[in-house]
Amino acid sequence: MTRLNELQTIPARKGKAALLKAGQRIRIINTHGQQVVDTWAFNVCDMSEHMSMQHVRAYLDKVIPAAGDALVSNRRRPLLRFLTDTSPGVHDTLIAACDIARYINLGIKEYHDNCQDNMSAALDALGLRAAFCPSPLNLWMNTPAVDNRITWLPPVCKAGDYVVFEAAMDCVVAMSACPQDVVPINGVGCTPTEAHFMVCEA
Fold this sequence. Notes:
Number of domains: 1
Number of strands: 12
Structural class: alpha+beta
Order of helices and strands: EEEEHEEHHEEEEEE
Strand content: 25-35%
Distance between the termini: 18 Å
Helix content: 10-25%
Radius of gyration: 15 Å
Oligomer: single chain
Shape: globular
């Protein structure tokens, strides 16, 4: 069971998951200010229902969610409510989680930590499993699409910025401190760092 009101670490390049009862909140913290955190949510009673970025975009009629928005599932039901964002609000809903194939395409020959495997490992630690890796909400990822081209830029948030989500149903939230170190989405130094989270009552 997830411990309440206790700061938890998402290790650099790795993942963690937390169980939330309906009404509980999770604060995800960009501790050093330059770390992307891939984020997923699943209905813990039926893991086939998951937070879905394509459904979120249609539900909100916008590409980037913000505080006050509902984050819906593939069944178009609110799964999380976006309550607070202390950052400038630059996040990504378009890019798939990095995986082994992504790093092979970037020229990496050996195994590379990746968000897809991090999600699976984080869920497995709680005795849970997802049938596949949905596209995540990429917190703080700065990948604007201009003239039909995606640009891979460093985050624009500062150390200590955080978001708060409230569970609209019993769910599990999985997070990956993205291990991307080839393109500068985790800062110009391309050095992934740890992030933190805390689960609390409303």
